[in-house]
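User: For a benchmark we're assembling, each entry needs the component sequences followed by a predicted structure for the full assembly. Here are entry 17's components. Please fill in the structure.
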Amino acid sequence: SAVISQKPSRDICQRGTSLTIQCQVDSQVTMMFWYRQQPGQSLTLIATANQGSEATYESGFVIDKFPISRPNLTFSTLTVSNMSPEDSSIYLCSVEGRAGREQYFGPGTRLTVT
Amino acid sequence: TQLLEQSPQFLSIQEGENLTVYCNSSSVFSSLQWYRQEPGEGPVLLVTVVTGGEVKKLKRLTFQFGDARKDSSLHITAAQPGDTGLYLCAGENFGNEKLTFGTGTRLTIIP
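Assistant: Structure for entry 17:
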């Protein structure tokens, strides 16, 4: 399984600002995923990020609000732009496993917007 | 939109009891995975089931994939406090690597 780290682990931000979350993997992977987990709820996929191409966003999520970079096969960033309290969530990155079915997750970034 | 409904949503039982968590959908999935998530951590994969009717055992945990590949169950025997956590099923969609996560079951085992 891959080892995934995220930075920051948590942050408290003011309304209207932006936060960039970093995701680092210890091995090269083709696909990386970004999820949002609102308090007490399940995971919702934000977008899929392949190296060298534009991220693919799920319904309800747009690039202007959640720009994603994927500069190489071990790293990705997700920016939460112009934040509002409704953006308070845990943001998780994941990568696909070798079998191509399962996913391995980072520890998450807990974001609170005041 | 594919939905995976889990039941129960919350479950609190005494140590040593048995329990079953259900994951149901009207959609067919390529595979079904179960994850456990503890506070402050990301979900951790427990098992992947691929074939309709498949049963897999992981120590005291038994996972079953429905014959029609639309549903799954997780049975825990003699629950222990270490089993406490959020259990999530996730269906793998055909044709891509995306997962649809279930609504989650928050399990608490009381010592």
